[in-house]
Design brief:
The chain is mainly alpha-helical. The protein has 5 helices and no strands. The N and C termini lie far apart (74 Å). 3% of the residues are buried.
Length: 118
């Protein structure tokens, strides 16, 4: 053990080889497919009952509002060169990266606007 580290060092001549993490891809794909199925089910339900568009609009406004707010927060932090936000920057960037999904999820809402706004 070295005085500068709290863990045992590798013996001389040996290196520690770690395989890259390859897990999690199945969970991401499964979650995406489940989300796609649930969006289709909600659109079918909204087409059967026009009041379902109100629920879709509320859910879209809530989650898209969070994504847009994270983009605005990220822009403010970059504009002010804030250093204290280093720890929070990656989660905020991950939240703001969902804007593309909401552009796709706006398409069904644009189709159902005649039911929401008469």
């Amino acid at each position: 053990m070295s005085a500068a580290t709290s863990h045992a060092e590798a013996p001389a001549g040996r290196t520690l080889d770690f395989a890259p993490f390859k897990g999690g891809g199945g969970w991401v794909m499964g979650g995406g497919l489940l989300g796609l199925v649930l969006v289709v089910v909600s659109l079918i339900g909204a087409s059967m009952n026009p009041d379902g568009w109100y629920s879709y609009l509320m859910a879209f406004a809530y989650w898209a509002g969070l994504a847009f707010a994270s983009v605005i927060l990220l822009m403010m932090l970059h504009a002010t060169h804030a250093r204290w936000v280093t720890v929070l920057r990656r989660p905020i960037e991950a939240m703001s990266s969902s804007i593309g999904i909401f552009l796709l999820l706006f398409i069904p809402l644009a189709i159902g606007l005649k039911h929401v706004y008469v």
